[in-house]
Every structure is written in C-alpha cells, then in structure tokens.
Amino acid sequence: MTESVPTLEPGLFKRPWVFIRGVPAMKFLPPEGPPEIAFAGRSNVGKSSLINALLEQGGLARTSNTPGRTQELNYFVPGGFSGEGEDLPPLALVDMPGYGFAQAPKDEVDRWTKLVFDYLKGRVTLKRVYLLIDARHGIMKRDADVMDLLDKAAVSYQVVLTKADKIKPPAVLRLKSETLDKIRKRPAAFPEVVATSSEKSEGLDEVRAAILFAAAGR
Ligand SMILES: Nc1nc2c(ncn2[C@@H]2O[C@H](COP(=O)(O)OP(=O)(O)OP(=O)(O)O)[C@@H](O)[C@H]2O)c(=O)[nH]1
Ligand SMILES: [Mg+2]
C-alpha cells in the first residue's frame, strides 16, 4: 500500500514523475491499465517540452532542437507505484515520436509513423490525445490527416498551440480563433484550444485541468 494514494486531482502534477518504459513497437506496450493521455504532433513542435513543463520537471522527457528526438512511445507516471497487482498509477502521460520529419532514414520514419498511428487508433485506455500545433505555423496538412484519423477512430483530442512566446499576443488570439473555426465541425475535437508556452510557463494550468477531466472520463 502507498501512504497517500493520489487521485486525479491537481496535486498529481506536483508529485515526482518517473519514466517507466520506451515502446518501440505495439507488442511492447504495457498491459492496458491506467488512463493514458498522449502528446502528438509534428516533429519539434514541443511535445516533450510541454510534458516537462506540465510536470515542472525539466529534463524528464528528452528534448532537442534537432527534430526526431523522441523515437519511441515514452511512458511517464507519478512515482511510488510498483505497477504490480492493484498498485497502479492513476494516470500515464505518453510522449510520442513526431510526424512529418523528412530528414531521418525513410524506414525509421515509416516505423515511427506506423507506431504512432497504430497506437492512436487502437489503444482502449487512451483517453485523450493532445495534438500540438506550432503557433508559428498553424494546422498543416499532416496535422489535418491525424485529425481525420482521430475523428474516424472516435478518439478524443484537444488542440494545443505551442511556442506562443514566439509570436505576438494579438497573433496568438487570432490563431486561436482561426484554429477553433477549423476544428468546429470535427466530431472528436474538444471545442477549446489552449495557447501554451513551455518556455514562459503559459497555459499550463488550463492543460493540466483538461487532462484531469479527460482522464476521469468527464
Ligand atoms: N520558444 C520556445 N521554444 C520551445 C517551446 N517548447 C519547445 N521549444 C523548443 O523547441 C525544440 C523542440 O522541442 P521538443 O520538446 O524536443 O519537441 P518535440 O515535439 O518533442 O520533438 P520530437 O521529439 O523531435 O518530435 C526545443 O529546442 C525546445 O527548446 C516553447 O514553448 N517556446
Ligand atoms: Mg520529443
């Protein structure tokens, strides 16, 4: 037994989190258990940085200026759970390889892309996908393809704009409303867009709260 079992409440993000597993292919996924929240998006959009910012643990998920840093499905959970029997964490965050990265060897890119797509459409415990969009670029073709897939598979997703510190506040507001317009008719899209900056710690509480709601199935 753990001393204080954390439930799905804000304090969960204040605990120390740990990396438990890197999954290079579907057959290495952990058994389906705790609710999972995944972070998807183009290469270099800031997925790993957002996870570190949400958990206030810089360096937990590995980040890099070079696209293609994250190459497996990386599982992070709050510490203090053995994972044995009933002693499971209440939530797992899953950092994903990016898509749309053309410079890596083709067979590697194909492998990551297949893994990302297979996971997104076939994981029962996946409660929501955070789909990250670079505030400098907005929704691009590959992002719309992923939204099509999630809509078709009826997997809930929420769009998060990243690197909001790189554009001016009025441009952030404009992009937010343009993005909302673009997703309005998409059946699996959560009808709110959050602008974030991992660098400046902006928009994080909003994302944390939404994750807890999604994980609780509310
Ligand atoms: N200015 C600014 N830079 C950011 C922000 N978030 C991430 N970055 C930078 O963007 C680069 C990519 O960040 P990562 O978090 O590694 O991106 P990723 O989406 O995990 O990338 P892959 O794993 O390669 O797909 C790094 O140099 C980060 O420092 C942000 O909010 N603001
Ligand atoms: Mg990454």
Task: Jot down its keywords.
single chain, Rossmann fold, 5 helices, 30% helix, binds guanosine-5'-triphosphate, binds magnesium ion
Could you outline the blueprint of secondary structure elements for this entry?
Layout: E1 17-23, E2 36-41, H1 47-55, E3 73-78, E4 92-95, H2 106-122, E5 126-134, H3 141-153, E6 157-162, H4 169-183, E7 194-195, H5 204-215
Parallel strand pairs: 2-4, 2-5, 5-6, 6-7
Antiparallel strand pairs: 1-3, 3-4
Helix pairs in contact: 2-3
The structure holds guanosine-5'-triphosphate and magnesium ion (MG).
What would you note in describing this structure?
It contains five helices and seven strands. Strand 6 (157-162), helix 4 (169-183) and strand 7 (194-195) form a beta-alpha-beta unit. The longest helix is centred in the middle third of the chain and has 17 residues, at 106-122. Strands 1-3-4-2-5-6-7 form a seven-stranded mixed beta sheet, with helices on both faces. It has 218 residues and is an alpha/beta fold. It is globular. It has a single domain (10-215), classed as Rossmann fold (3-Layer(aba) Sandwich).
